[in-house]
């Protein structure tokens, strides 16, 4: 493929087999949320919550793998999720979904940037805005300018660092401290972590799986990887990636337990600071820091590249007649603007990453059934299908104060699902009687 062709920026130069497909997916989905939210989940909901967070990512990838096989077969010549939406939806539905994709894209990038800001604050004694400026510049070079080819070149390095950190460091700690003292310390200082009959934790797990699947099914960079995978290997690749991903939050949770078994803690930030202090070997400290920033930079770079493609290919190109050079120039401008916007927003806001995930959970949950309908249906799609997610979101947010956030997310899911079911039943009867 000609490197000057804009498709090179979108897809790179290679098709993905099973092994490298798994590497690419892990590089995308081991994120700042994985590093920071999985320990936060463990502390809030105990070991059940930690296991549940692992199941969230694993089942999300496995379930999407089943859908991805159909996507790859039905749309063999497309490159992005926006291409599929433009083919399947009428103009109003298309532009609504593009707006939703932009919102979720910026939310996802913001979450990763927040994770980077928290870790920069813990690790380096420099102003956060300066550290973030350097970090986002690196992400701009990788994802904004390098595109999919550069992301793939670094994916193997990212995954190697991830597994080196989550395997070597916990093993080293448990050899140093032993398993039994850790277990006894948890029983003494934090017995609630071992409580398994926690109904709140079970509701959290079910809701987290719903949100996780909603995130994956509308993730722009994941869709791009679907179109790069060999058709016969799509489902297997996602299934194996899900099982492998599950081990990473579990390893991080086990690492965290070595820190909290000997006493109390203030918050997740203080725990991570304590973790770095406890890693007395300089090599392991360096490995842990590399793991954190490598994982987050890979996630931001993938999201930055996919969001830029969405804007240039699926928004601007719809209105403008763009040459190859125009697309490249707009790509650099768009990705640079997003990085500057991130720098400003991260300097102003600092929400909890877990709270932010569940705040947007209504959006992710309400999009699941409409997206499945769009992917699986063969005929024309009624306008109510994409907009059912908006009705579901509004309904869910309206019930938050009455039933709580977790239950309200399920309400969002069921409202949009019910509307799609009604349209589906109506379509079947209408086609039957018109024959």
Automatic annotation (TrEMBL):
<feature type="transmembrane region" description="Helical">
    <location>
        <begin position="238"/>
        <end position="261"/>
    </location>
</feature>
<keyword id="KW-0812">Transmembrane</keyword>
<dbReference type="GO" id="GO:0015293">
    <property type="term" value="F:symporter activity"/>
</dbReference>
<feature type="transmembrane region" description="Helical">
    <location>
        <begin position="356"/>
        <end position="376"/>
    </location>
</feature>
<feature type="transmembrane region" description="Helical">
    <location>
        <begin position="155"/>
        <end position="175"/>
    </location>
</feature>
<keyword id="KW-0769">Symport</keyword>
<keyword id="KW-1133">Transmembrane helix</keyword>
<keyword id="KW-0739">Sodium transport</keyword>
<dbReference type="InterPro" id="IPR050277">
    <property type="entry name" value="Sodium:Solute_Symporter"/>
</dbReference>
<feature type="transmembrane region" description="Helical">
    <location>
        <begin position="94"/>
        <end position="120"/>
    </location>
</feature>
<feature type="transmembrane region" description="Helical">
    <location>
        <begin position="126"/>
        <end position="143"/>
    </location>
</feature>
<feature type="transmembrane region" description="Helical">
    <location>
        <begin position="330"/>
        <end position="350"/>
    </location>
</feature>
<feature type="transmembrane region" description="Helical">
    <location>
        <begin position="12"/>
        <end position="30"/>
    </location>
</feature>
<feature type="transmembrane region" description="Helical">
    <location>
        <begin position="383"/>
        <end position="403"/>
    </location>
</feature>
<keyword id="KW-0472">Membrane</keyword>
<feature type="transmembrane region" description="Helical">
    <location>
        <begin position="50"/>
        <end position="68"/>
    </location>
</feature>
<protein>
    <recommendedName>
        <fullName>Transporter</fullName>
    </recommendedName>
</protein>
<dbReference type="GO" id="GO:0005886">
    <property type="term" value="C:plasma membrane"/>
</dbReference>
<dbReference type="GO" id="GO:0006814">
    <property type="term" value="P:sodium ion transport"/>
</dbReference>
<dbReference type="InterPro" id="IPR038377">
    <property type="entry name" value="Na/Glc_symporter_sf"/>
</dbReference>
<keyword id="KW-0915">Sodium</keyword>
<comment type="similarity">
    <text>Belongs to the sodium:solute symporter (SSF) (TC 2.A.21) family.</text>
</comment>
<keyword id="KW-0813">Transport</keyword>
<dbReference type="InterPro" id="IPR001734">
    <property type="entry name" value="Na/solute_symporter"/>
</dbReference>
<keyword id="KW-0406">Ion transport</keyword>
<feature type="transmembrane region" description="Helical">
    <location>
        <begin position="281"/>
        <end position="300"/>
    </location>
</feature>
<feature type="transmembrane region" description="Helical">
    <location>
        <begin position="195"/>
        <end position="218"/>
    </location>
</feature>
<keyword id="KW-1003">Cell membrane</keyword>
<feature type="transmembrane region" description="Helical">
    <location>
        <begin position="409"/>
        <end position="429"/>
    </location>
</feature>
